[in-house]
Amino acid sequence: MTIGHAIVGGFSITIGYHRLWSHRSFQACIGIRILLAAFGAGEVQWPILWWVKHHRAHHTYTDTDQDPSNAKRGLLFSHIGWLLGLNEAAWGPADVSDLEDDPVVIWQQRLYYPILVVVGFLLPTTVAYYGWNDWKGGLLYGGLTRVVVTQQITFLNNSVAHASWAGSQPYSTKTTARNVRFLSFLNLGEGNHNFHHTFPVDYRSGVEWREPNVSRWVIWLWGKLGLAFDLKTVSPREIERARLIQKRGGIYQRLYYNEHNTQSLSQLPRITWDEYRSRSKCGNLLVSIGGAVYDVAGFMDEHPGGRDLIQKFIGKDATESYYGHHLHSPDAEGILERLCVSRLADDLH
């Protein structure tokens, strides 16, 4: 019973809190969302809104002082120290407004503690009492012990999966995130952390057949059954490009993108800064980065940091923000390449 409850609760974090609500990697029917929210509360890892806020900040400001679990402050801090000395004021801003329209998220937020007590502790206690007349064992092992163990397994993704001595970095070295295979056995597929930080919107969180990733296949099965939809993936071309760039090293990566971006921009139509501003004011969702103009209308809800971070740069120059606040992954560069629609004239603002 304890193991079963831990697995279901683990899925509520890996599939629900993480891939569904934090990254919007897929959508699910309301029944699935209610189950994930209820068992997620039973894991005692705080409400969805709080969890998503800290996780999006972690992705947006990885390895900086604005990262809630900044791995560069040491293993103990990234594992649990950031919680013991909780200082939310130091976190970088993260937008969760998209979740405020989800009735399941709001329901869990309002009734978090009653749900926590019922699902996290009364449920295993009641099952043990009526099943084999051992309510104390149900409370101790199915409740308290399970919560402590599953919390520590979750925290390993903040610590060990960002430790310099662990795992590998086949996709990117822009952050400390690493693929640590043995973690995926413990946390139901979340150990492919280098892949995840490189391609955060991909629901699979890993593509290698030898990588244990039960959460991926549960989502895939739900998709086949019609319980989940809009499963987002990154193209094999983008994945292989990231792998190749990483294999050849950082210098090649900079040269590749500089040359590629120069060639791509030269083929795009030119517009003036005033024309760019005018189109934006007329309702076009355009953002300027490094002299190029990107149509972000179809990407707003997929941005890992939330749509508001993009919204505030509509019709403005986001170059400093894009390159200054966060080391974007090769996947981000690939997305920009697809969204680019024009280039700005040289005599701009």
Describe the structure.
- It is a single chain.
- The protein has 349 residues and is mostly helical.
- The chain folds into 2 domains: 2-229, no CATH class; 268-344, Flavocytochrome B2, Chain A, domain 1, CATH 3.10.120.10.
- Helices cover 56% and strands 5% of the residues.
- It has 16 helices and 6 strands.
- Strand 4 (286-289) and strand 5 form a beta hairpin.
- Helix 1 (2-22) packs parallel to helix 7 and helix 6 packs across helix 7.
Q: What is the tally of beta strands? A: 6
Poorly predicted residue ranges: none
Q: Quickly give the structural class.
A: mainly alpha
Largest sheet: 4 strands, mixed
Q: Write down the Rg.
A: 22 Å
| Overall mean pLDDT | 88
Helical content band: 55-70%
* Tally of alpha and pi helices: 16
Structurally, the number of domains stands at 2
N- to C-terminal distance: 65 Å
Hey, roughly how much beta strand do the residues contain?
Answer: 5-15%
Q: Would you list the SSEs in sequence order as H and E?
A: HEHHHHHHHHHEHHEHEEHHHE
User: Tell me, what's the shape?
Assistant: globular
SSE layout:
Elements: H1 2-22, E1 27-28, H2 30-41, H3 48-60, H4 75-84, H5 103-110, H6 112-132, H7 135-159, H8 181-186, H9 193-198, H10 214-225, E2 228-229, H11 236-248, H12 250-266, E3 270-271, H13 273-281, E4 286-289, E5 292-295, H14 307-311, H15 319-324, H16 330-339, E6 340-344
Parallel strand pairs: 3-6
Antiparallel strand pairs: 1-2, 4-5, 5-6
Helix pairs in contact: 1-2, 1-3, 1-7, 2-6, 4-7, 6-7
Subcellular location: Membrane
Family: Belongs to the cytochrome b5 family. Belongs to the fatty acid desaturase type 1 family.
Domain Cytochrome b5 heme-binding: 268-345
